[in-house]
């Protein structure tokens, strides 16, 4: 069996490097749209080495607006593993049910794949120089392993998020959005502002189920029960 097919994600990480990073960090109060170029050596080069070629995969990673969450909120989200829920429960026990963190959510919109001549490093550097000339501030150029090219993308997302976290958290603090609201059990102010905004949207015709789901996730239904029931009168 091909050695390339046997490579695992840890080995892929070791063989991944970043040629060019975006010039800005993740936006705190809006979407962040990053164009990516992942360059790799074709798998068939294990058997065909007479010419140099590289595979370029392009697309966009869209980061949704970062969201303040608590262990209580996270325990009511769907789609996580049992281990993740155990971690959320641990954080709730250790730090408190309303200790705050930031939830980042991403979407990958793959665009196209093309094969071009040249070494992988030359291709990546050429793309990077072209982006610099065009002043493309929100683009990333990566070199990865062909069979696990998306591992390179995930590595970038993790590092990009880590580099943005302190700035995002500081923005939330400066806006007072992390302040615990004692009259609502200590949830951060951002939660109560979001709930009030959802009530306004329901009055304008939005889906009441979205409001109910958020109330339950924050554990706030009892605090807003009368206001919620008034919606049906």
Low-confidence segments, given as residue ranges, are 1-5
Shape: elongated
Distance between the termini: 68 Å
**Total number of strands:** 9
Mean pLDDT: 91
Helical fraction equals 40-55%
Could you state the order of secondary-structure elements as H and E? HHEEEEHHEEHEHEEHHH
| Largest sheet entry | 5 strands, mixed
Give, in spatial order, the strands making up the sheet with the most strands: 1-7-2-3-6
Radius of gyration: 23 Å
Total of domains: 2
How many helices? The count is: 9
Q: Estimate the strand proportion.
A: 15-25%
SS-derived structural category: alpha+beta
List keywords for this structure.
45% helix, alpha+beta, two-stranded antiparallel ribbon, 9 strands, 233 residues
Entry summary:
Helix 7 packs antiparallel against helix 8 (208-218).
């Amino acid at each position: 069996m091909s050695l390339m097919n046997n490579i695992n994600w840890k080995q892929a990480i070791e063989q991944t490097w970043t040629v060019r990073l975006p010039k800005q960090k993740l936006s705190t109060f809006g979407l962040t749209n990053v164009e990516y170029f992942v360059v790799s050596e074709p798998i068939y080069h294990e058997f065909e080495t007479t010419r140099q070629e590289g595979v370029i995969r392009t697309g966009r990673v869209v980061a949704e607006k970062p969201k303040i969450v608590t262990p209580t909120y996270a325990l009511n989200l769907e789609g996580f593993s049992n281990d993740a829920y155990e971690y959320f429960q641990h954080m709730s026990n250790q730090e408190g049910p309303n200790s705050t963190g930031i939830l980042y959510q991403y979407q990958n919109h793959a665009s196209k794949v093309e094969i071009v001549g040249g070494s992988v490093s030359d291709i990546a550097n050429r793309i990077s120089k072209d982006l610099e000339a065009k002043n493309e501030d929100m683009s990333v150029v990566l070199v990865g392993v062909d069979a696990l090219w998306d591992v390179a993308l995930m590595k970038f997302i993790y590092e990009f998020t880590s580099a943005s976290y302190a700035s995002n958290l500081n923005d939330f603090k400066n806006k007072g959005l992390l302040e615990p609201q004692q009259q609502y059990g200590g949830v951060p102010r951002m939660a109560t502002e979001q709930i009030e905004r959802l009530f306004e949207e329901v009055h304008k015709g939005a889906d009441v189920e979205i409001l109910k789901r958020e109330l339950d996730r924050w554990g706030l239904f009892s605090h807003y029960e009368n206001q919620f029931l008034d919606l049906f009168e």
